[in-house]
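Next comes this protein.

***
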Amino acid sequence: MDDPRAQRLFGDRLVAPGDLAGSPFRVDRDRIVASPFFARLAGVTQVISPGGAGLLVHNRMTHSLKVAQVARAIAERVDHGLADKLGGCDPDVVEAAALAHDLGHPPFGHLGERVLDRVARQRLRLLDGFEGNAQSYRIITSTEIRGQATIGLNLTNAVRAAVLKYPWTRRDSQRFMDPAPRGAAPPADDPEGGSPKFGAYSTEAADMRAARAPFAGRVADWQQTVEASVMDTADDIAYAIHDLEDVHRVGVLQQGAVATELMAWQRWGPATDLDRAGGAIESLRRQLHRKDGWMADDDAFAAAVELVRAELVDGLLARPFDGSLEAEAQVAAFSATWTRRLVESVETIADPAIRSGHVQLATAQWHEVQILKFVQNRFVLARPDLALHQRGQGRLLASLVEALLAWLIDPDEENRIPSRLRDLVELAEAELPDGTPERMDKARGRAVIDFVAGLTDNQAVGLMQALSGKSRQLWTDAFVL
């Protein structure tokens, strides 16, 4: 195939139901949607665990579908003259990348990601640890054992590059830039730990470079492609708006607490005592100036606070969600209005700031998204009752890793190891160079992390119950992937 953006890593040996589509990028989209990896996302937490909410809330699949919808709308609005100079912006590429961007996220949302990273680095001594974006790239990348594709969807260069929000590995040099790209700077409490956000493990680094090769000389080595930037912006919009629907539906986002915080800051302004009402949002304002001075603007920040207060606090939250048709219509109208405003504000930038991308929200809307995300982080994710629930989920995942490792090394169980887990061990061992210290231990560790990350929430719970002897059910669906 002449177009390097449309080339696949291993040619067209993988056949999927959508392969009759005219565009190679539509083939990619169909391969993603037809895969078991995408189907799994219906059982993976987005923000609130569907099993404990009692109402229909977003899971990783519905979130990905909405990101794809928003991303396609943005892709159709970009400056295509400028985008072509930067490597192109095909709506099919953007949609496919949006559908694939969360394939590697483990059970229990971002909590699962943090737990698996800690266990992988501290317990299993895997230098790459675990990162959801890198796991997604691992899944979509074709990897071979003895000439057979074992995992991967054999996607085109363009789509693989568009999935890369953070086009570097954990220990690439991007983390030493000043300022560093968003997600690349190591945290102050772990300066030797590498980038907290990265797009590929070291085992997939060569493939990452191959996917981005057609964009060489067009976008910086550390910069997203235009299509990746569109997908990333759409993900931000979906998180800021659609996840608010969930916390409103289940009644955990209370009007009074949000109103007190926003109105106190409006009353006292930047001089707010950080220990009193309004102090948290003032801390956000200062943080934006410190980390994102390229965009931070006090007038835009104040206007965003007022808009969120008027439309969220005095609008959506003014009446508790009761499941009525009127309440549903109010949620739908809020989401549609905000999505339209944000999508219509998107700009295409020739020379973006290091912490931005070639596609970004206008100044006013960028600040609005920061305030919406603040509301969720402050008044939902920081709740002690959610922390209680998540601590239990975190202990479950850590215990599950230990139980599976014990199973793998039990000499009496060698012939009864789940086939999927055995395959992952073989794959991980093949990726490690000969002479790697503790090669088999590291291969088992990576295999267990890959296995656990590929479970749904319910599969993780059910498998741990079975392994701990608490389940009376003989068979489980935990090994289907």
Observations:
- The mean pLDDT is 89.
- The two ends are 32 Å apart (CA to CA).
- The beta strands are 143-145, 148-151, 347-348, 359-360.
